[in-house]
From TrEMBL:
It holds the Pfam family NLPC_P60. Residues 2-136 form the NlpC/P60 domain. This is NlpC/P60 domain-containing protein. InterPro entries: NLP_P60_dom, Papain-like_cys_pep_sf. The keyword Protease applies. Keywords: Hydrolase, Protease, Thiol protease. It comes from Aurantiacibacter zhengii.
């Protein structure tokens, strides 16, 4: 039996190669990091909530963090594992989401490369929080 976390990890890895687009929600036309998580959740059988508007640089992500429990994402205190959603902080005014893929690589929407990629962990940015997907 495939767990919810395994399904999310697999769904994220299937999105590798999708184009990058700010506020993108469709893998065909482009995804940003939030769109990547929303698309992977949908592919894993969860219904992502409606997302509020946001800018590329954002000093706070509190509005988004409040949405995570709605899809079954809960704070993780265990060792990092495939299917975990990771919140990174590339700069003081920017957050970035990634999902740990099945092989342990971080799947994320890379603006500079213009697509969703897999990168070896850890990325050079501080980890602010991590969540795992609980079973329905």
């Amino acid at each position: 039996m495939v767990t919810a976390a395994q399904a999310l990890a697999r769904a994220a890895s299937e999105l590798v190669g999708a184009p990058f687009r700010l506020r993108g929600r469709d893998p065909q036309t482009g995804l940003d990091c939030i769109g990547l998580v929303a698309s992977a959740l949908a592919r894993a059988g969860r219904t992502p909530p409606t997302l509020p508007h946001y800018a590329m640089r954002n000093a706070s992500c509190a509005r988004f963090l409040e949405l995570l429990p709605q899809v079954g994402l809960v704070p993780s205190r265990a060792d990092p594992a495939p299917g975990d959603v990771v919140l990174l902080r590339p700069s003081a005014a920017q957050y970035h989401l990634a999902i740990i893929g099945p092989s342990g690589l971080l799947v994320h929407a890379h603006a500079g490369l213009g697509r969703v990629v897999e990168s070896p962990a850890p990325l050079p940015w501080p980890v602010q929080a991590r969540w795992n997907l609980i079973e329905n």
